[in-house]
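Input sequence (216 aa), recorded before submission:
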Amino acid sequence: MASPPLPGSVLDLAPVVPVVVVEDAADAVPLARALVAGGLPAIEVTLRTPAALDAIREMVREVPEAVVGAGTVIRPEQVTEAVAAGSRFLVSPGWTDVLLEAMRASGVPFLPGVSTASEVVALLGRGVREMKFFPARAAGGPAYLKSLSGPLPQARFCPTGGIGPDSAPDYLALPNVGCVGGSWMLPPDAVAARDWGRVEALAREAAALSAGGTCR
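Predicted structure, token format:
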């Protein structure tokens, strides 16, 4: 059965999209339930581990209220595999024309990664307006994204990379940022201990984040 289409943009589902690395597929369902219970329904499962596709399948089957996507998509064949597993959106750290064509043909929303103004302009020229900004902190952080909002207001971003609860509000305050991606609500010791209550509590704090702070 095909997954239902998203009700809107990936960027508008929640202020924070958890970036999840699943080492053991048995953790997928309780992890997803904890994130959803905490108010973070959009979950990006990175394709960095052998368990990733199985984790996506389990989340999609057992946690229907979650909006599960695939991250670290860097090859066209991963697009096919991720969508077949039930992914409802795709995220890449960067892009090529071949990868962009595959993501566009998949029929699900996608966020190709950018880190420079030239890459943003190139994607806008190809009809893509929603992007991942990565690695956000190393590539210039909120100040860089703020500088893009003037000449390129039509581009919207999900910044990811080096973002935590202290810096997230500065990104969310920007007019061209819809959400941020991060993994701080999934501390390795909590995941290793299967302390899903702690994950849920951290997810609830992340879901409550809103625009604030200053961008210097």
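Checked by second reader. The longest strand covers residues 16-20.
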